């Protein structure tokens, strides 16, 4: 039902919410469940800080890597509906990478799949949003 194309992504989200049986419920559970998941993650990090778990460097560093992967999954999922705010998020956040000396511009073009945020970007982000949870769970 979802279409990773800049011209029809927002319309496909509206189609899922309006025309698919319980599509509105699925979208709301997905978004709010992700928010609750982040609350649980932050509580888990807080517990680790309180009990000094950061002293176990290998375990803590693996947790930090998993946190970055979860944040990346959430970011690319936020961009997928392709409304005004998600377009702004894709442009501004990925443009922050262009501040990296020497490789920033090339890195942004590699992530976007071209010189601007376009359908190639949505296709990549949809793929990452689907694949990253399996990588995190592995």
Can you describe this structure in just a few lines?
By secondary structure, this protein is mainly alpha-helical. Helix content is 74%, strand content 0%.
Distance between the termini: 27 Å
State the helicity in percent bands.
over 70%
Shape: flat
CATH superfamily: Cytochrome Bc1 Complex, Chain C
At the third CATH level, what is the topology name? Cytochrome Bc1 Complex, Chain C
Keywords: Electron transport, Heme, Iron, Membrane, Metal-binding, Mitochondrion, Mitochondrion inner membrane, Respiratory chain, Transmembrane, Transmembrane helix, Transport, Ubiquinone
Pfam family, one: Cytochrome_B
InterPro entries: Cyt_b/b6_N, Cytb/b6-like_sf, Cytochrome_b_N_euk/bac, Di-haem_cyt_TM
GO molecular function, one term: oxidoreductase activity
Structural features, described:
With 138 residues, the chain is an all-alpha fold. The chain has a single domain, classed as Up-down Bundle (Cytochrome Bc1 Complex, Chain C), CATH 1.20.810.10. The protein contains 6 helices and no strands. The longest helix is centred in the N-terminal third of the chain and has 28 residues, at 23-50. The protein is flat, with a radius of gyration of 17 Å. Pfam families: Cytochrome_B. It is a multi-pass membrane protein.
């Amino acid at each position: 039902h979802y279409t990773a194309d800049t011209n029809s992504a927002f319309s496909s989200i509206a189609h899922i919410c309006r025309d698919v049986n319980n599509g509105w419920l699925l979208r709301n559970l997905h978004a709010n469940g992700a928010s609750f998941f982040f609350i649980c993650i932050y509580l888990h990090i807080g517990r680790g800080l309180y009990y000094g778990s950061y002293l176990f460097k290998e375990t803590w560093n693996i947790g930090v890597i998993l946190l970055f992967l979860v944040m990346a999954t959430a970011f690319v999922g936020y961009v997928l509906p392709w409304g005004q705010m998600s377009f702004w998020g894709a442009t501004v956040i990925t443009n922050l990478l262009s501040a990296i000396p020497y490789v920033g511009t090339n890195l942004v073009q590699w992530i976007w799949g071209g010189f601007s945020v376009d359908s190639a970007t949505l296709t990549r982000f949809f793929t990452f949003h689907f694949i990253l949870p399996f990588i995190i769970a592995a």
